[in-house]
Amino acid sequence: MPKLKLPTAADLRSRIDEITAETVTDALVQHHRSKDDIMKTATFAGRDLLASEQRQYKEHMQEISKLEVLHDEVKIDRSQIIMTGDNPKDAPQFMQRVAPFDGSDALALRPQVVRDKALAALEYRHKDLNLPTPAMDKVDKLVRSNLTNHTQCDGSLIARRILLTENDDYRSAFMRVTTDPKAILTENESRALRAFEEFRAMSGGTDSAGGFGVPVFIDPSIIMTAQGSPNDILDIAQLVTITTDSWKGVSSAGVSWSFDTEGAEVSDDSPTLAQPEVPVHTARGFVPFSIEIGMDYPGFADELATMLREGYMELVSQKTTLGTGVNEPTGIVTALDANAAVEVLPTTDGAFVAADLYKLWDALPIKYRNRGDRVAWMSSTDVQNEVRNFGTTMGSNFTVDLTDEAIPRLFGRRYFLNDWMADFTSSVGAANLLIVGDWKNFLVAQRAGMSVELVPHMLGAAGRPTGQRGLFAWARIGSGSVNDLGFRILQNQ
User: Fold this and answer.
1) How confident is the model at residue 216 (pLDDT cuts 50, 70, 90)?
2) DSSP characters for 52-116?
3) Domain residue limits, the chain
4) pLDDT tens digit string along 447-461?
5) Cα angle vertex 81, ends 75, 85, to 5°?
6) What CATH code would you report for 219-249+273-492?
7) Pairing mode, if any, of strands 442-455 and 251-252?
8) How do residues 77-136 score in pLDDT, each as one tens digit?
9) Are 215 and 304 in contact (CB under 8 A)?
10) Which of 223, 286, 382, 422 could form a disulfide with 431 if both were Cys (CB 3.0 to 4.6 A apart)?
């Protein structure tokens, strides 16, 4: 057997006193990558492994097994040692390393064990996938959640989904079945797909309706954050991930207090409770592609996933702003436009002047104005340009000059741009120009888990195949205001 160029177990074992567990983990990642690259090359070429590729694949698998054994033997660094007073000699106690993908049945494991393994998988995969820190932090928080600290998200379900979709067999099978309707799978790949099907059936809800689950660490319905998104609403709104069909909460304008006469019965100061609900709706995406591209373009499955993800983010940006709430999320503009109590009219219809900013800010109750960075402004670029022109010299209405990209703050609060909002037209007519408020009163609820399915043949107008296939994806998301009074919106009439 020819010697591999990558670090081998024998190489590392020869300097056992110098290496750490992280050194062995890095070697494991390199061999996993190389093994996966071999399979990807054959898959996208639409052929079986060549004899030389089979030999290389086997070599990598053998080295992975040896490195996993070495990992358990290697000296553990200080970050994995606990000193405890229970030991009379204060000897170091070694933490047992959790192996995320050790062949255990993810459906049969206890919730805490599943969470531990999922967190280990996050650590194992993040270097390979180059996951950004905000996405890692979000997944970590979701996995640790339970129905006690997060009544509408069971982190063990997300943890099981990680173990079922992030193992090498499932990821390899996923790339095959999303580009080839008759993909020939290995026994392990077929078993991985069946395990996910069983998990989805057990989970219930409409998510059990077919398709292949997108591996969690590339699934925008789970790792979606404001970073890299065209939607600043995700950065300032209350963003929650749920494993139910809708988010349900309780809100109140507050508890009233009173002074009463000595010895008199206390007045009825009970609050009025509202029970806002934000249902999730199904968003769909479709990308057609020719059979030739699917065969000739290595990495095409990854490119398709990127296209679907970007399209999904753009749709979410639009609907969290302007969605009607009918078979789609309720946008912030739609929600506030339906409540006359939060609408503020400009000084003169058809005109927009600096006095309108002061009027809008003053109309927002001080208890919402004083909530720090939870409070923010939002408008289209065109409306912000009008604001920039309110002061052309260093006076009270001056904001920035042309050297600045945008207005960072108004009245000490951040200012975000959203070009789904209306432009200023200098004419009379209904237009929602500018929003300010405590954005934690606007909620975006994501149902965890995006699914995709290959459409094997596209048909033309005459009902005959066109030589194209398609990738159909769906995910569920909702949004809505849970307390309109936490906002004010400037509305031209």
Assistant:
1) confident
2) HHHHHHHHHHHHHHHHHHHHHHSPPPGGGEEE-TTSTT-PEEEPPPPPS-SS--TTTS-HHHHHH
3) 15-75, 111-213, 219-249+273-492
4) 888 888 888 888 888
5) 135
6) 3.90.1690.10
7) unpaired
8) 433 433 344 444 444 444 455 678 877 888 888 888 888 888 888 887 776 666 777 778
9) no
10) 422
